[in-house]
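Below is how a single chain appears once it has passed through the pipeline. First comes the sequence as given, then the structure the pipeline wrote out for it. We keep one example in the README because the format questions we get most often are answered faster by looking than by reading.
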Amino acid sequence: MGDSCGCGSTVDVRALEAGQRRVLMIVLAINIATFVMMIAAAIYSGSSSLLSGSLDNLGDALTYLLSLVVIGASLRAKAKVALIKGLLIFGAAVAVAIQIGWRLTHPEVPIFEAIGIAAVINLAFNALCLWLLTPYRFGDVNMSSAWECSRNDLYEGVAVLLAAAGVWLFDAGWPDLVIAGGLLLMFLRSAWRVLRMAWRSYRDEAK
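Resulting structure:
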């Protein structure tokens, strides 16, 4: 009986890890594609909110790649990678802050049509990624932090849509900067949450 239970547990773990790999490979491919699309749209439209979204997608692609590497690894290794993920999110926040500062000294009105089209496409793919990762939301620190990144993407997609609407409504660039500032705060909050969770997990495993 004990052997049967042990064998069943092994099969379940392998199936779970295979499912995690499959999902992470899909969301990795999606985020690479959306990053290319978003960065091109950001350059064309002159949008800070789109730039922040593209940097977020790049950070997420790196996050999912790191998550793939540590599937099946020790909890301590996963905690270390989660710490790196938190730092990547923080790095995206710093990049957005720099862009906002530059735009404040070089004001312009972004092209709202380009922002809106890119935002709709990005939001649709972000929703797909979140749906794929939701079954692993309460898994280990590795998958939990991946889900956290994907949830932020959904908020970011809605925010960029609001930026496009604001630029169109007011014919001004400040709505785009306001949304970019809001995304900056979200990145900082998320970085803190991921780093805190990862550090707690790393510390517990080190005992």
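Residues 1-11 have pLDDT under 50 and may be disordered.

See the next section for the split statistics.
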